[in-house]
What we know:
Structural class of chain A: alpha/beta
Number of strands of chain A: 7
Strand order of the largest sheet of chain A: 3-2-4-1-5-6-7
Helix content of chain A: 40-55%
Shape of chain A: globular
Oligomer: homodimer
Radius of gyration of chain A: 22 Å
CATH class of the largest domain in chain A: Alpha Beta
Amino acid sequence: MTNKWNMLVDQMRQGSIRALSKLITMVESREPGWTDAMKVIFKDTGKARMIGITGPPGSGKSTLTDQITRLFVKRGMSVGIIAIDPSSPFSSGALLGDRLRMKSTVGLENVFIRSMATRGAMGGLSQATQDVAKILDAFGKDIVIIETVGAGQDEIDVVKATDLVVVICVPGQGDAIQAIKAGIMEIADIFVVNKADREGADHVVLDIKNMLDIRDSGYKPSVPVLKTAAISGEGIEDLMDKILEMLNSRQRDKTQQEKHLKEEILVLMEREIACLVRARWSRDGKLDAAVKEVLERNNDPYSVVQSMIAPLKSKIECDTE
Amino acid sequence: MTNKWNMLVDQMRQGSIRALSKLITMVESREPGWTDAMKVIFKDTGKARMIGITGPPGSGKSTLTDQITRLFVKRGMSVGIIAIDPSSPFSSGALLGDRLRMKSTVGLENVFIRSMATRGAMGGLSQATQDVAKILDAFGKDIVIIETVGAGQDEIDVVKATDLVVVICVPGQGDAIQAIKAGIMEIADIFVVNKADREGADHVVLDIKNMLDIRDSGYKPSVPVLKTAAISGEGIEDLMDKILEMLNSRQRDKTQQEKHLKEEILVLMEREIACLVRARWSRDGKLDAAVKEVLERNNDPYSVVQSMIAPLKSKIECDTE
């Protein structure tokens, strides 16, 4: 590891917020040496519990995250928040600033908030989020909350990799069917019907419970459905208790952890291969020539790929260590 | 190619809808021999024009697609529709059936509709969609419409690869800012404000135009913003004319085509190599052992990946043919 990375990792370990932010940025943008840094950082990970909070735009995710975080801090825990923002094509960054989103926790000593854009993350959103979560874990955060809209497979993957998933619904947003459509129904450990002071809240609770009944048919422990009104703070303490209870009772499911880790390694590997492949075949114009041939229908993409990977194939298959 | 594939491709070429459906299913699920089949099918591609239609849930995408398709057919063109459905965790397939979505065109002789689930596509949604689009092209469709919610990078990639992108907005859905947030603003060739009989339609049109002004600042040909009411059919003819006008005037942008094809080949190649490496490491329990080591913090994911790709690395970097 270079001196720069070494210094930053050391400072981060000593609690420097500045070094923490810098490290995250450098790892996110895959600056040379990031893997070596992550190797060192990884040694300090494995303590934080990860919570995924997801729900449609306007469901009050940020306010709820904000409220929960305050309660965690009140109970003596330190919290890291990763807020995944839909990207703007204009700013090519996150659309909503951290400060706009989490009013009451910004500035609290034990809270660190990081926004991430959904697009353009080097190595993919899922990997980038996991990198940041690891760094926050190594930094000593007890709880890492990942807050996301949960639209698209990418974001669902991100949330899936946490220890506990809270899915938020609200009355009047096309019912719980939206949650099904988004594919987040099956990953929920807790359902929250937020804005429960609105008309129709009980109806949404019933809808969700019915759907859970259809799905579960007894094979899975029942998923709690809670009501909150995040702005007034109603129901937040109950939600908090439920979260802690569930985190404690499950502890870490080892099979689950192995599964996530395996997936992470495979995705990381695929990205690395993709980088190698792109670098290699962009180098000498071979790919460009092949593309032209295909466009003229003198060749096809499938044959091009086969001839490109032929030499690798034998190499991979013969490699018995 | 085996007899089975040969027979299906032949029958498809002769116009068998049954063979077409079967072929699509087999290629989608990557049944052995799919690449050889696609090599043959690819020779017949390159004639169809691809249109992407995207917009938030409830914006009337399906109705609009349905209406446009009817007009295409009326003008003597044959149409293939690929409807990308959010997946249901229960059915592990597409949530809404074709018949539910496209009322008036289902059963029309020149229309073929295929639903695709957003999740679980072997080789990724983007690749699967492109495979199906190619098969429809080879089958002889003049127009292939890809209809999708456009949430998540995957779906945006799918739409980006078409010849023309129609983005639908509706009044009262949180304004055009949602389009920006979803990252689809910049890929629109035509904006449609649907449900234009609703209050606020003109306001949405203005919002979009303002945003286009900010973005374009003169460097790009102006993007048309049209109003429709898909249910009554208002404005559909105008939209249709605009689509055909733009498709004709641009013809095929060769640089764009080369770019898409290059990307497709690279993605295909990455997937193939990743499959090889995965298979190699799953074979003798090497990966499982590595995962266990990492869980015990005796190793880290980054070192595991480095050793996985080491043999590739030397091969790729040395292979100068």
